[in-house]
Design a protein that fits this description.
With about 160 residues, the chain is an alpha/beta fold. It contains five helices and five strands. It is about 25% helix and about 10% strand.
Protein backbone atom coordinates (compact mmCIF):
# COMPACT_ATOMS: atom_id res chain seq x y z
CA UNK A 1 0.00 0.00 0.00
CA UNK A 2 0.80 3.71 -0.19
CA UNK A 3 2.85 3.51 -3.40
CA UNK A 4 0.98 6.04 -5.60
CA UNK A 5 0.07 3.29 -8.09
CA UNK A 6 -2.39 4.23 -10.82
CA UNK A 7 -2.59 0.78 -12.44
CA UNK A 8 -1.95 -2.85 -11.56
CA UNK A 9 0.02 -5.15 -13.85
CA UNK A 10 -0.83 -8.80 -14.45
CA UNK A 11 0.25 -10.38 -11.17
CA UNK A 12 -0.15 -14.00 -12.18
CA UNK A 13 3.23 -14.13 -13.95
CA UNK A 14 5.23 -12.89 -10.98
CA UNK A 15 3.29 -14.26 -8.01
CA UNK A 16 0.66 -16.90 -8.88
CA UNK A 17 0.44 -18.18 -5.29
CA UNK A 18 -0.22 -14.76 -3.73
CA UNK A 19 -2.80 -15.05 -0.94
CA UNK A 20 -2.84 -11.44 0.40
CA UNK A 21 -2.77 -8.39 -1.86
CA UNK A 22 -2.57 -4.96 -0.23
CA UNK A 23 -3.15 -2.07 -2.65
CA UNK A 24 -4.53 0.42 -0.12
CA UNK A 25 -3.96 4.19 -0.34
CA UNK A 26 -2.85 4.35 -3.95
CA UNK A 27 -4.31 6.21 -6.91
CA UNK A 28 -6.28 3.37 -8.50
CA UNK A 29 -9.46 4.34 -10.33
CA UNK A 30 -9.95 0.88 -11.83
CA UNK A 31 -8.34 -2.54 -11.79
CA UNK A 32 -8.38 -4.60 -14.96
CA UNK A 33 -9.86 -8.06 -14.25
CA UNK A 34 -6.98 -9.75 -16.08
CA UNK A 35 -4.50 -8.30 -13.58
CA UNK A 36 -5.80 -10.38 -10.66
CA UNK A 37 -8.31 -12.87 -12.04
CA UNK A 38 -5.82 -15.74 -12.15
CA UNK A 39 -4.69 -15.39 -8.54
CA UNK A 40 -6.49 -18.56 -7.49
CA UNK A 41 -5.04 -18.53 -3.96
CA UNK A 42 -5.98 -14.90 -3.19
CA UNK A 43 -7.81 -14.80 0.17
CA UNK A 44 -7.52 -11.16 1.24
CA UNK A 45 -7.71 -8.09 -0.99
CA UNK A 46 -7.25 -4.59 0.41
CA UNK A 47 -8.08 -1.79 -2.05
CA UNK A 48 -9.11 0.79 0.57
CA UNK A 49 -8.32 4.45 0.02
CA UNK A 50 -8.31 4.51 -3.76
CA UNK A 51 -10.64 6.01 -6.39
CA UNK A 52 -12.47 2.85 -7.44
CA UNK A 53 -16.05 3.26 -8.64
CA UNK A 54 -16.83 -0.46 -9.15
CA UNK A 55 -15.62 -3.89 -8.03
CA UNK A 56 -16.17 -5.57 -11.41
CA UNK A 57 -12.60 -6.86 -11.37
CA UNK A 58 -13.75 -9.50 -8.87
CA UNK A 59 -15.79 -11.25 -11.57
CA UNK A 60 -14.41 -14.57 -12.69
CA UNK A 61 -14.47 -18.12 -11.53
CA UNK A 62 -10.90 -18.00 -10.18
CA UNK A 63 -11.83 -15.75 -7.21
CA UNK A 64 -13.07 -18.81 -5.34
CA UNK A 65 -10.62 -18.48 -2.43
CA UNK A 66 -11.36 -14.81 -1.72
CA UNK A 67 -12.59 -14.38 1.88
CA UNK A 68 -12.11 -10.67 2.57
CA UNK A 69 -12.40 -7.48 0.51
CA UNK A 70 -11.62 -4.12 2.08
CA UNK A 71 -12.88 -1.40 -0.29
CA UNK A 72 -13.37 1.37 2.27
CA UNK A 73 -12.80 5.01 1.28
CA UNK A 74 -13.27 4.69 -2.47
CA UNK A 75 -15.92 6.11 -4.81
CA UNK A 76 -18.07 3.01 -5.17
CA UNK A 77 -21.60 3.83 -6.26
CA UNK A 78 -22.72 0.39 -7.42
CA UNK A 79 -22.21 -3.15 -6.18
CA UNK A 80 -22.58 -5.69 -8.96
CA UNK A 81 -23.03 -9.44 -8.89
CA UNK A 82 -19.26 -9.82 -9.22
CA UNK A 83 -19.09 -10.27 -5.44
CA UNK A 84 -21.53 -13.17 -5.67
CA UNK A 85 -18.93 -14.99 -7.76
CA UNK A 86 -16.71 -15.14 -4.66
CA UNK A 87 -18.31 -18.10 -2.85
CA UNK A 88 -16.10 -17.85 0.28
CA UNK A 89 -16.47 -14.10 0.76
CA UNK A 90 -17.20 -13.64 4.47
CA UNK A 91 -15.92 -10.09 5.14
CA UNK A 92 -16.85 -7.12 2.93
CA UNK A 93 -15.91 -3.61 4.02
CA UNK A 94 -17.59 -0.84 2.01
CA UNK A 95 -17.61 2.11 4.44
CA UNK A 96 -17.08 5.69 3.24
CA UNK A 97 -18.08 5.26 -0.39
CA UNK A 98 -20.83 6.78 -2.54
CA UNK A 99 -23.38 3.99 -2.27
CA UNK A 100 -26.68 5.84 -2.47
CA UNK A 101 -30.09 5.86 -4.08
CA UNK A 102 -32.29 2.87 -3.43
CA UNK A 103 -31.09 -0.51 -2.26
CA UNK A 104 -32.09 -2.00 -5.60
CA UNK A 105 -30.39 0.75 -7.65
CA UNK A 106 -27.11 0.43 -5.76
CA UNK A 107 -27.08 -3.36 -6.19
CA UNK A 108 -26.71 -3.95 -2.45
CA UNK A 109 -29.99 -5.78 -1.92
CA UNK A 110 -29.59 -8.32 -4.72
CA UNK A 111 -25.87 -8.93 -4.34
CA UNK A 112 -25.48 -9.01 -0.58
CA UNK A 113 -28.46 -11.27 -0.03
CA UNK A 114 -26.92 -13.84 -2.38
CA UNK A 115 -23.56 -13.99 -0.54
CA UNK A 116 -24.14 -17.10 1.52
CA UNK A 117 -20.90 -16.91 3.57
CA UNK A 118 -21.00 -13.16 4.32
CA UNK A 119 -20.64 -12.60 8.06
CA UNK A 120 -19.13 -9.11 8.34
CA UNK A 121 -20.36 -6.15 6.27
CA UNK A 122 -19.64 -2.47 6.89
CA UNK A 123 -21.61 0.26 5.13
CA UNK A 124 -21.33 3.27 7.43
CA UNK A 125 -20.65 6.70 5.90
CA UNK A 126 -22.63 5.86 2.75
CA UNK A 127 -25.87 7.61 1.74
CA UNK A 128 -27.61 4.23 1.67
CA UNK A 129 -27.02 3.27 5.31
CA UNK A 130 -30.47 4.23 6.62
CA UNK A 131 -32.21 2.13 3.97
CA UNK A 132 -29.94 -0.82 4.65
CA UNK A 133 -30.62 -0.61 8.37
CA UNK A 134 -34.35 -0.79 7.55
CA UNK A 135 -33.70 -3.90 5.48
CA UNK A 136 -31.85 -5.52 8.39
CA UNK A 137 -34.79 -4.76 10.64
CA UNK A 138 -37.12 -6.41 8.12
CA UNK A 139 -34.86 -9.49 8.00
CA UNK A 140 -34.96 -9.76 11.80
CA UNK A 141 -38.75 -9.50 11.70
CA UNK A 142 -38.80 -12.13 8.95
CA UNK A 143 -36.79 -14.56 11.06
CA UNK A 144 -39.33 -14.19 13.85
CA UNK A 145 -42.59 -14.03 11.91
CA UNK A 146 -42.05 -15.70 8.57
CA UNK A 147 -41.53 -14.72 4.95
CA UNK A 148 -44.87 -12.89 4.51
CA UNK A 149 -43.57 -9.85 6.42
CA UNK A 150 -40.48 -9.57 4.23
CA UNK A 151 -42.41 -9.78 0.98
CA UNK A 152 -44.85 -7.14 2.17
CA UNK A 153 -42.08 -4.72 3.27
CA UNK A 154 -39.80 -5.16 0.26
CA UNK A 155 -42.34 -5.83 -2.41
Amino acid sequence: GKNCLSCVADLEACCPLLDVLDLHNNNLSKIAPRSIQHLCELRILNVAGNKLTRLDFLAGRSMGALEEVNARRNRLSLITDSIVECPRLSRLYLSANSLGGSLAASGIEASIMRCKQLRDLTLEMNPIVEQFMLLLLVVVVWEKKGTVAVRRCLG
